[in-house]
Structure to design on (154 residues):
């Protein structure tokens, strides 16, 4: 289950501020069963034993006549205990920063073009020499994602 609590406010007619708190019950992810229909001798279950984790997200949008800009920040705690950290799931604490811009297009502003950029900084994570499958090591990640959407309102 994931529990979320969020709030948004309009401190001025052209601004929206927003905050979210999220709590994920990752503790139900105790194992990852692998079942093979034709070769049952390969069936296994990978122990995961995740912990519950929380996150906080903050964002703002400023709307102008034909365009708007947005920015945000989020922090997310890690759920995987050191024995479960592996190349498959190198879970670690994360900080994210996002920027976005939106444009209203057309004579009646019926088209909307939105562009975004997300930089995700993932903390260094070490298996502390206790990985269950001997995938011991250190993991460090960085994610850079960009995207766009085009919408038509009719």
């Amino acid at each position: 289950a994931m529990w979320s609590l969020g709030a948004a406010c309009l401190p001025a007619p052209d601004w929206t501020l927003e905050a979210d708190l999220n709590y994920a019950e990752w503790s139900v992810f105790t194992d990852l069963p692998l079942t093979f229909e034709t070769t049952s001798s390969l069936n296994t279950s990978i122990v995961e034993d995740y912990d519950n984790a929380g996150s906080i997200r903050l964002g703002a949008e400023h709307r102008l006549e034909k365009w708007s800009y947005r920015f945000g920040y989020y922090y997310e705690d890690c759920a995987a205990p050191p024995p479960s950290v592996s190349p498959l799931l190198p879970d670690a604490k994360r900080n994210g920063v996002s920027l976005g811009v939106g444009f209203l297009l057309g004579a009646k502003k019926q088209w909307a073009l939105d562009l975004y950029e997300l930089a995700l900084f993932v903390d260094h994570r070490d298996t502390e020499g206790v990985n269950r499958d001997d995938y011991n090591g250190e993991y460090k990640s960085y994610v850079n994602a960009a995207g766009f959407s085009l919408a038509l309102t009719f």
Remarks:
- The beta strands are 2-12, 15-24, 31-34, 44-47, 53-63, 67-76, 94-105, 111-126, 138-152.
- The radius of gyration is 21 Å.
- The CA atoms of residues 126 and 138 lie 4 Å apart.
- The chain is about 0% helix and 60% strand.
